[in-house]
Each structure stands twice: as structure tokens, then as C-alpha cells.
Fold this protein.
Amino acid sequence: EVQLVESGGGLVQPGGSLRLSCAASGFSFSTYWMTWVRQAPGKGLEWVANIRQDGGEKYYVDSVKGRFTISRDNAKNSLCLQMDSLRGEDTAVYYCARDMVPFESWGQGTLVTVSS
Amino acid sequence: SYVLTQPPSLSVAPGKTARITCGGTNIGSKSVHWYHQKPGQAPVLVIKYDRDRPSGIPERFSGSNSVNTATLTISRVEAGDEADYYCQVWDSSSARGVFGGGTKLTVL
């Protein structure tokens, strides 16, 4: 069974940093693109970033480019999202999802709250 | 950047057919995927590549895609279908994933 488990969310002040992790199991992690999607409270889904199987290609939504960094460790079946210079508008539930598209598997999400 | 437009809401009586649209410039040339999401839960893929149903998704769910509009059709709507529905594409020209704004389906 495919499992994606996010962790690392919490409350952080504006301008602060947070590192999210996604532990993957039940599939061959190194053979899939991986993606982060977020959802602000009461809002719709927003694609954030994705990363190729070998980490050699990475893409970001414009609003996080230069502030967020997606990475992966295939040996540990782990996906990460380093979030720096956080803003109030980054407040959201962050989901990791398997593949580039479509997303047949999602984690349960981790809540990031940016507030003073 | 590529934009997908969905109606914010749709209300349908039980047993009737719901059609949720997703508009985008020349969307017919892209592969469209649909998700539903119930409160407090992660999204679930219900249609992939315009019209394919993942395993476990009832035959009542179907999809189509042509020219500038993709459509998710739910036949014989049930109370359990009440959820937010999102369309999605991969925009290769910008190398970005794109979601529609979502449609809240209410079963009367």
C-alpha cells in the first residue's frame, strides 16, 4: 500500500523558516516525480513545486521561487521542502503527492501557520 | 500563466446528473485530471487523462475534454458525492502544474 506521511509543520513567524518532510513507502520512490501541493484555509488547491526522479529537474510556482527549495533523498525514500522567508500567505496545509500528474496518492497533509 | 476556470458552486438533486466544467484556452490539447475533496481530507483522484477512472471510482463518474472545456459528469448523484471538485493540468509551456479554482457540489 502506498503511504505518504508529511511532517514538520507548525507555527512560525513571518520571515522565518520551516522544513517539511514526506516519508514515502509502498512503492519504488526513486522512479517517480514527486510534488508538493498546498491549500490555504478555506481556499483551493495550489501546485507548489515538483522534482524529477534523480533530483535533476525542479519546478516552482512563481510565488515561492527563490524562497522554497524542494529536494529528495532516494536512499531514505524521503521528500523535503525547505521554506525560507515565510509570509502570511504561505499559511496552508501542505500535501506531498506522488508523480508529476496525475496524483493518485496523497499524504494527509501538514499545517503551516505563518503568524506573529 | 495558464488558467483553469470552474464554476464556484453547483447544486443537484439526488439521482440527477451533475456536470462540472473546467475552461481553459485550448484545454482539449492537454490531459485533464479531476479530484474530489471532502472537508478535512486529502483530495482523491476521480478521473485521469480526460476520461479514465482510477480503480475504485464508480462508473457514475466520467469525463470528457474538447476544444476549450473539459467536463466531469457524475450520473445518479448521491449524497456522498457532495464535495469540492478540482480540475488539473500540467502546463508544459511554463513547466507548472495548474489547478482550477474548484467547484463545490451540493446535493440537495
About this structure: Chain B touches chain A through 25 residues (CB under 8 Å). Residues 88 and 99 of chain B are 4 Å apart (CA to CA).
